[in-house]
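Quick question, first post here. What does this chain look like in 3D?
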Amino acid sequence: MSVPELEQRTNIIFIVKLGKSGNEIREMLVQVYGDNAMKKTAVYKWVKRFSEGRECVTDEEKSGRPATSRTEENIANVCQIVRENRRLTVRSTAEQVNINRETVRKILTEDLDMRKVCAKVVPKELTEKQK
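> Answer (accepted):
Ran it through. Tokens below.
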């Protein structure tokens, strides 16, 4: 969330307490912030929230499922599988570890710093012997 948006929410709560309508509030925000003013739907959403008694201008914590696939254990499993057979596909590796293909791809590229070369998964930085 940008600072001007937080500032605009603070202004909205103040103007709501003055009894102004959503349309009037939107016009005031456009006068002050111009092109950076909140969209009309967002203004109405916050006007409704503040009219119902909400006092906090920041977003609430979102309830989401935490990432569980890119764990140290799965990274170690993928590493071991790849070291045993470098010609495996991302799909077959994902099936062996029982996690998503995209997660395996991220583990290989971001965590293990590897890439595909001639159908083999190899470290990005090769030693003279490996070349």
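The mean pLDDT is 86.
The CA atoms of residues 76 and 112 lie 9 Å apart.
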